[in-house]
């Protein structure tokens, strides 16, 4: 299918359309030039759009890899492979850097991101930023790794010592979440959203109708959409949670659920 028709089918417009057009260019490049080609780092929502696009375009899952540097990474690239290349032999374009600092400075994710932007590094070239007490580990594209290793020396008021590390040495902070057990009248999005974010069901339905709610990183405006265990729901401005478990039905015919709220 022609590129513009594919993008029209997805309803892509504005920046999303430009992004998805670049994704298609990378997929075509891998096949036409017989070399691997990768996207920049994509947000979870952009990854969901990319998956929908590739499925619609008929690009098989064996033709690409999703890479973020570690299992559970939020930001990932899509690496497209030529027909002759096996996934196991593909060289990753990701590099891993550790920026160490004195712990009394208590640097945050914002400090590191601001420093990088101040150096002219666009957000799309950097994956997750994993901040610990005395260092921050970054996953970056190889196109910017050399520059950061030679030139990045401060963040906030702190001096940095930057070195390259193996992927296996990444310091991955534990995911912080709060487990909530509740019952709902059904697995409708508005009911589960109300329980997961501790708000009135009418308020949840209002947020859904306004386009502020995503299910598995895809916008959903239907309050009656039925959810399943494992679905992730995010509400712009209110938080994010995962429907971790769906249990049995109580005597009052309500469904027991467990949600994990990210904090």
Q: Would you write up a description of this structure?
A:
The longest helix has 20 residues, at 14-33. The protein is α+β, with helices and mostly antiparallel strands and 263 residues long. The strands form 4 sheets. Strands 10-15-14-13-11-12 form a 6-stranded antiparallel beta sheet. The protein has a 4-stranded antiparallel beta sheet with strand order 5-6-4-9. A hairpin with a 2-residue loop joins strand 11 (213-215) and strand 12 (218-219). 30% of the residues lie in helices and 28% in strands. Helix 2 packs across helix 3 and helix 6 packs across helix 7. The model has no long low-confidence stretch (mean pLDDT 95).
What is the CATH class designation of the largest domain? Alpha Beta
Could you state the order of secondary-structure elements as H and E?
HHEHEEEHEEHEEEEHHEEEEE
Question: Could you say which structural class the secondary elements and strand pairing correspond to?
Answer: alpha+beta
Straight-line distance between termini: 43 Å
Enumerate the strands of the largest sheet in spatial order, edge to edge or round the barrel. 10-15-14-13-11-12
- How confident is the prediction overall: mean pLDDT? 95
The domain tally reads: 3
Based on Cα principal axes, name the global outline: globular
User: How many H/I helical runs?
Assistant: 7
CATH fold annotation of the largest domain: Ribosomal Protein S8, Chain: A, domain 1
Write down how many β-strands occur, each being a DSSP E stretch of 2 or more residues.
15
Low-confidence stretches: none
Please report which band the strand proportion falls in: under 5%, 5-15%, 15-25%, 25-35%, 35-45% or over 45%. Answer: 25-35%
Seen as an oligomer or otherwise, the chain set is single chain
Output the radius of gyration. Answer: 21 Å
